[in-house]
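TA notes, week 10

Several of you asked for a full example with nothing omitted. So below is the full record: structure tokens for the whole chain, then the designed sequence directly under it. When grading your own attempts, check the secondary structure regions first.
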């Protein structure tokens, strides 16, 4: 889910119900397959990737705004393997996602020493650095556009996941005789009480489109996932940026109200119970839960077939709820033992009735883990209490509001000049116009907010 300047301009109840159509990726169609050894941990990774452009009826040729990375032997290290997904939003979302796809691996590789010793710290340095580079890039207008980023790094016998936004990573773990979803990231949206409090402390208003338009009580916080427009981040006196997430790369205007590029990072030991992990855009998780996606992956021995099945199901669900679909990008990585490189979990699924998995490779030393309380970081469901996370959680730190100073790029010359005018106008409302169409990468979408505030640039 993006921002009102790009995707999802209309509240859900105002969108038409789609019908017919299909993703056309049955079987292995379109998915690519790769394999990589992790010699230091005695593992083999078998991975598949698939990206499907969204269906936008008004613009059938619209380019996908998703991008991804599948980089094995990363930075020349046979034990490092990087998998990442970037979901662009806004008029320049595709350019922002492409920029992040290129910048993040380069910045991580340039910090190879720290990446090997402390991957979490390397991610915490690289993502804000990629964000700063995007702001400074003359070829990318990120003033009202940006991208989510979720990256999973296999480092020997450990998995490190860094996330900004609402794309997601989840692992399938063998437990009690089945593959159970283990969250590797948490969607950073205003549904989360801690993220909502943080952006409000930075001067943001958190309201749905219906609340902004006066249809609902502006002070109510009882938003329900998948019902109506979600809570969004707005400037205190302006109708921008309207983001449905609280962290991202890019989104220069949104930084003034606390939308930051500081990632949350989770590190886990890869145990014999870990069957696979998934990294995907919210085109997958908008209507499928993490457990439903894990269940689907567990049904297929070939990750390409799982990619295709998940994309097809996601596509179908989008058309059941909307008159369009989002871009869909999926990476599935099976974790196999180097001495038993058969189907993921093939031995684990033949274990005793107790559900105890057969040991396929040695346990790695226990790692420090950042894992916010599962109950307070439900993906897609609202979390109403502040998290009680473990030591080192970004929620326990004083995260910057990133309020621009008078010399901030946002208020200078160059690509952000129009946005600076928008912010300085502080949401001045003009007379309604007859009609307006919001252009997002070539797609025109009706945007009711712009009828009441033409300063929201198309």
């Amino acid at each position: 889910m993006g921002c009102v300047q790009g995707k999802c301009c209309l509240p859900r109840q105002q969108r038409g119900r789609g019908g017919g159509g299909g993703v056309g990726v049955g079987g292995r169609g379109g998915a690519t397959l790769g394999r990589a050894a992790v010699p230091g941990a005695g593992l083999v990774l078998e991975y598949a990737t698939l990206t499907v452009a969204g269906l936008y009826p008004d613009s059938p040729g619209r380019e996908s705004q998703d991008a991804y990375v599948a980089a094995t032997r990363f930075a020349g290290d046979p034990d490092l393997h990087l998998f990442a997904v970037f979901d662009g939003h806004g008029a320049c979302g595709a350019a922002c996602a492409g920029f992040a796809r290129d910048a993040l691996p380069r910045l991580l590789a340039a910090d190879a020493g720290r990446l090997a010793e402390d991957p979490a710290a390397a991610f915490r340095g690289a993502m804000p650095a990629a964000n700063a580079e995007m702001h400074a890039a003359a070829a990318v207008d990120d003033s009202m556009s940006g991208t989510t980023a979720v990256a999973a790094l296999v480092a020997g016998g450990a998995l490190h996941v860094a996330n900004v936004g609402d794309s997601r990573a989840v692992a399938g773990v063998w437990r009690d005789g089945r593959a159970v979803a283990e969250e590797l990231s948490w969607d950073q949206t205003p549904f989360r009480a801690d993220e909502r409090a943080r952006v409000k402390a930075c001067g943001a208003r958190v309201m749905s489109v219906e609340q902004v338009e006066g249809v609902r009580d502006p002070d109510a916080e009882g938003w329900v996932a998948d019902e109506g427009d979600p809570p969004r981040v707005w400037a205190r006196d302006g109708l921008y940026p309207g983001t449905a997430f609280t962290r991202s790369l890019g989104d220069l205007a949104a930084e003034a109200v606390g939308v930051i590029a500081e990632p949350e990072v989770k590190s886990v030991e890869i145990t014999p119970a870990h069957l696979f992990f998934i990294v995907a855009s919210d085109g997958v998780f908008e209507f499928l839960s993490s457990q439903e996606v894990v269940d689907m992956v567990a049904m297929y021995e070939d990750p390409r077939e799982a990619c295709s099945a998940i994309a097809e199901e996601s596509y179908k669900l989008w058309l059941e709820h909307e008159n369009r679909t989002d871009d869909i990008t999926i990476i599935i990585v099976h974790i196999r033992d180097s001495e038993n490189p058969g189907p993921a979990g093939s031995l684990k699924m033949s274990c005793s009735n107790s559900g105890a998995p057969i040991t396929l490779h040695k346990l790695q030393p226990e790692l420090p883990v950042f894992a916010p309380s599962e109950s307070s970081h439900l993906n897609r469901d609202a979390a109403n209490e502040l998290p009680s996370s473990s030591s080192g959680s970004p929620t326990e730190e004083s995260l910057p509001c990133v309020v621009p100073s008078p010399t901030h790029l946002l208020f200078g010359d160059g690509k952000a000049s129009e946005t600076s005018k928008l912010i300085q106008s502080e949401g001045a409302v003009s007379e309604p116009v007859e009609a307006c169409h919001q252009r997002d990468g070539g797609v025109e979408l009706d945007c009711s907010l712009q009828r009441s505030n033409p300063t929201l640039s198309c």
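The two ends are 18 Å apart (CA to CA). Use that as a sanity check on your answer.
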